[in-house]
Design goal:
Elements: E1 14-17, E2 22-25, E3 29-33, H1 40-70, H2 83-105
Antiparallel strand pairs: 1-2, 2-3
Helix pairs in contact: 1-2
Length: about 110
């Protein structure tokens, strides 16, 4: 793939419709179809996972960007990181991660 740039995905949020197995981006633009080759329960689990992908990507990006902004220092220096700052940041991020997991598992909240 030398010299080629990777295409960007369709922006989320996505939603999954079990009837028909369609995955839609905001504005009801179809972005995917989930096949029933392994049965309805697997199809629905896969649809929820695919629909949550943009949310999970955003949460992972947020974690890496926040870490770089708040805790990374020059590579040749030790950096003092406040334990309480790290715990506060992680507590907030964990709530976002739990919400994404709940969305994939079809639960109301994490």
């Amino acid at each position: 793939m030398k010299g080629q740039t990777m295409a960007s995905h369709t922006p989320g949020p996505y939603s999954y419709t079990p009837t028909g197995g369609m995955i839609y981006a905001k504005g009801m633009k179809p972005v995917g179809y989930v096949a029933t080759a392994h049965g309805e329960a697997v199809k629905d689990a896969n649809g929820k996972l695919f629909a949550a992908a943009p949310l999970m990507l955003d949460i992972l990006k947020q974690a890496t960007e926040a870490w770089e902004e708040q805790f990374d220092g020059p590579a040749d220096q030790d950096l003092d990181v406040s334990g309480s700052d790290l715990v506060d940041w992680f507590t907030e991020w964990r709530g976002l991660a739990k919400a994404a997991i709940a969305a994939v598992e079809g639960k109301a909240n994490g």
